[in-house]
């Protein structure tokens, strides 16, 4: 019989980001094996499964609390630090590292949830209900525990308990400092912080310089940041979709304002939600590739790299019946990796970075996203660039209308990436002319 302890240990090891692989037994395979381990654990030891679940929720809480601390630092530096320096700061790199770790845990818990939900076995259906109640109960612990559970609960379509929702955005720095102090006294929490610090130093997202023309290449010309755009020209981009309950709200807001955006979609999500993907495409939005399953590509081997870039883009093109011209790396990681950049260029793709990261993936009040985004936009040298959002979060649907309205005033113009790149390459007299 498989040891429940080993199954739990493997699941937690993968969740905490201590990845190990041989050849192409990469993160994606680890997730699949982790789910198999969890399934075996469900059969053999429900107490062990409950312990594993609590460990993962605690990890999620810890990572998001570190994220909140760094978000406050990023926002406080916003008015004093130049834009390019902001994106090189420890607080920003720590936030990217937090996202990669938190999402890894969330993805694994989502897979276990789906496995339970797809079962016809009454025992497993009962365990899914217990899992739901455990997540809700954890969200009750504190305002920041509720924030930490927010993305997971949204993806699992779990409605938060009223007391978990109550005043979660009213907690200020004092409340956070108290919660942070209570957690940081443990040696375990220090390990989480060290892990984030270590991972942030390993991130490869810095890109210097601008190209005058754009074409598939591993050089500067094969990467767009938005700093190259003419004055007042903006591109709205949305990652990670399509989302079940959110993408169509964003689409409606765009249509009401006669705006077009570029959606960097995950091929697996398009397969799972073909009707939503079709509506986005038929509304005239641009479709771009964001990999198959949002795996950090600096952690994978050649076979998985082929799947996450080549196969993801080819399959996405077939699903939409459109040529895919642009690609965005998950987390922006691997921008300076020759192997990764060559693979993107080989597929006749131009990579797209950003100069405005709204950080909308972090649990927070929508008005904070609006305030941060407008402040970052005002720091750009030419009031121009690429805005990064994610169309899988409810908070993003609430924040973006005000930002869309801001893009419609003071002579700003919004176009898809393909329109902007084509016109820049053709030396158009006016790039993204007013419509």
What descriptive keywords fit this protein?
435 residues, single chain, 57% helix
Listing every helix as H and every strand as E from the N terminus to the C terminus, the arrangement reads: HHHHHHHHHHEEHEHHEHEHEEHEHEH
Portion of residues in helices? 55-70%
Q: Report low-confidence residues grouped into runs of 5 or more.
A: 1-33, 161-167
Mean pLDDT over the residues: 86
Strand content: 5-15%
Shape: globular
Describe the main β-sheet briefly.
6 strands, parallel
| Helix/strand class | alpha/beta
- C-alpha-based Rg, rounded: 21 Å
Euclidean distance between termini CA atoms: 67 Å
What's the total helix number? 18
* Count of β-strands: 9
Brief synopsis:
The protein is α/β, with parallel strands linked by helices and 435 residues long. Helix content is 57%, strand content 7%. It contains 18 helices and 9 strands.
Topology:
Elements: H1 4-15, H2 27-44, H3 46-77, H4 83-86, H5 90-117, H6 122-139, H7 143-155, H8 162-165, H9 173-184, H10 187-202, E1 223-224, E2 233-239, H11 247-256, E3 262-265, H12 267-272, H13 274-282, E4 286-289, H14 302-320, E5 326-327, H15 338-346, E6 350-352, E7 356-357, H16 366-379, E8 385-390, H17 394-406, E9 413-414, H18 417-425
Parallel strand pairs: 1-6, 2-3, 2-8, 2-9, 3-4, 5-6, 7-8
Describe this structure in words.
It is built from 18 helices and nine strands. α3 packs parallel to α6 and α3 packs across α10 (187-202). It has helices at 4-15, 27-44, 46-77, 83-86, 90-117, 122-139, 143-155, 162-165, 173-184, 187-202, 247-256, 267-272, 274-282, 302-320, 338-346, 366-379, 394-406, 417-425, and strands at residues 223-224, 233-239, 262-265, 286-289, 326-327, 350-352, 356-357, 385-390, 413-414. β5 (326-327), α15 (338-346) and β6 form a beta-alpha-beta unit. It is an alpha/beta fold.
């Amino acid at each position: 019989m498989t040891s429940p302890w080993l199954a739990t240990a493997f699941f937690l090891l993968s969740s905490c980001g201590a990845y190990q692989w041989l050849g192409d037994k990469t993160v994606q395979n680890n997730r699949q094996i982790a789910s198999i381990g969890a399934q075996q654990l469900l059969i053999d030891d429900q107490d062990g499964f409950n312990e594993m679940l609590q460990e993962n929720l605690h990890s999620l809480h810890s990572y998001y609390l570190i994220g909140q601390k760094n978000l406050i630092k990023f926002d406080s530096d916003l008015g004093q630090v130049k834009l390019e320096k902001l994106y090189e700061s420890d607080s920003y790199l720590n936030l990217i590292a937090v996202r990669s770790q938190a999402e890894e845990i969330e993805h694994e818990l989502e897979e276990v949830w789906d496995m339970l939900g797809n079962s016809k076995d009454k025992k497993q259906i009962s365990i899914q209900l217990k899992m739901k109640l455990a997540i809700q109960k954890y969200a009750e612990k504190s305002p920041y525990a509720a924030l930490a559970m927010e993305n997971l609960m949204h993806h699992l379509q779990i409605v938060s308990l009223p007391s978990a929702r109550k005043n979660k955005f009213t907690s200020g720095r004092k409340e956070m400092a108290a919660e942070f102090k209570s957690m940081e006294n443990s040696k375990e929490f220090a390990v989480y912080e060290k892990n984030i610090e270590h991972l942030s130093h390993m991130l490869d997202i810095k890109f210097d310089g601008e190209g005058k023309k754009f074409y598939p290449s591993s050089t500067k010309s094969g990467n767009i940041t938005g700093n190259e755009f003419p004055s007042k020209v903006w591109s709205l981009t949305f990652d990670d979709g399509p989302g079940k309950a959110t993408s169509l709200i964003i689409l409606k807001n765009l249509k009401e304002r006669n705006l077009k955006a570029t959606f960097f979609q995950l091929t697996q999500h398009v397969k799972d939600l073909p009707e939503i993907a079709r509506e986005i495409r038929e509304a005239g939005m641009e479709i771009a590739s964001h990999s198959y399953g949002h795996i950090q590509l600096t952690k994978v081997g050649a076979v998985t790299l082929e799947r996450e870039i080549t196969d993801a883009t080819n399959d996405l093109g077939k699903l939409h019946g459109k040529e895919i011209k642009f690609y965005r790396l998950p987390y922006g990681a691997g921008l300076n990796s020759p192997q990764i950049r060559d693979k993107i260029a080989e597929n006749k793709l131009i990579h797209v970075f950003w100069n405005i990261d709204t950080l909308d993936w972090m649990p927070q009040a929508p008005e904070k996203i609006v305030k941060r985004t407008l402040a970052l936009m005002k720091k750009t040298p030419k009031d121009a660039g690429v805005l990064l959002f994610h169309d899988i979060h409810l908070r993003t649907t609430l924040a973006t209308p005000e930002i869309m309205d801001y893009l419609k005033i003071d002579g700003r113009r919004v176009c898809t990436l393909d329109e902007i790149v084509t016109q820049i390459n053709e030396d158009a007299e006016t790039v993204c002319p007013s419509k």
